[in-house]
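Entry, Tuesday afternoon. Goal for today is a structural model of the target with flavin-adenine dinucleotide bound, before we commit to ordering more compound. Inputs were pasted exactly as handed over by J.K., no edits. I checked the ligand SMILES twice against the vendor sheet because last time a stereocentre got dropped in transcription.
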Amino acid sequence: MTHDPRLHHHRWRVAGVSVAARLSHLGSVTLLEAEPAFGYYASGRSPALFEEFYGLPPTIALNRASLDRHRDAGVLSPRGPMLVARADHRAEYDTDITTLSLDPISVEEARSVVPILNPKTMALAARREGAWDINADLLLQGLLREARANGAEALTAAPVQSIRRERDRWIVTTPKGEHEARILVNAACAWIDRIAASARWALRPIDDQLRGFRRRGHDLRGWEMIFGVGKAGTASWMLASF
Ligand SMILES: Cc1cc2nc3c(=O)[nH]c(=O)nc-3n(C[C@H](O)[C@H](O)[C@H](O)COP(=O)(O)OP(=O)(O)OC[C@H]3O[C@@H](n4cnc5c(N)ncnc54)[C@H](O)[C@@H]3O)c2cc1C
């Protein structure tokens, strides 16, 4: 049981640990992770592209605010984004290349980098130097170090089982005991509500798809990050089905 009035709880990975790292400068922090290690879910499985201009305006603002810090921490390495589109998606393509500051390229150029792109389906392509791969593990470990250096406690195998309110405090029960805090941060991503719990299975088709490409002899390491048109300004995107 912890009694610091400024204690903050986190269930999570990258969202939680980054909040923990920043708040650890201001008060006492406890980070609660359900799994035996950090990085099991979205944060450990995503392609981890850092694209400064991707997302809704508040996300872009956050991207831009964190770019220098990530660069200084050495967690970024170069990877250009590529946009591909069918001929009938010209209008969305034009919007996206402006939003994402991309340079139009030919279908042949696109295929010279990513040979599985289907020239019968795609008619338009664009790319830009200047998106980065995130070394997610390095990022995570750096944030954890920062949090711990400021006295934060980071517990694994500590799933939040119940939460109750007592006067001005939150009491959070885990198999590792009860934790008390004035402020509670829920960074459990897909587990924030019961419906989204199915997201952990939604990751499987992507894994299967990637294994399929590798079985067919493709080396994915040099491929661009590919966007379908019309996704750049939304919170979601998909691996294009070209
Ligand atoms: C297929 C895919 C591709 C993506 N590609 C990119 C990309 O290229 N670039 C990019 O920036 N973003 C990408 N994202 C988004 C990015 O991965 C997520 O936004 C980010 O990882 C979310 O981090 P998080 O900490 O919120 O979630 P998570 O990493 O999922 O962390 C949630 C944590 O909560 C824990 N938890 C759940 N229940 C409890 C409980 N009861 N008690 C304690 N802990 C609990 C879980 O164990 C888990 O560790 C992608 C996401 C997906 C799914």
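Confidence is low (pLDDT under 50) at residues 1-12, 194-205, 233-242.
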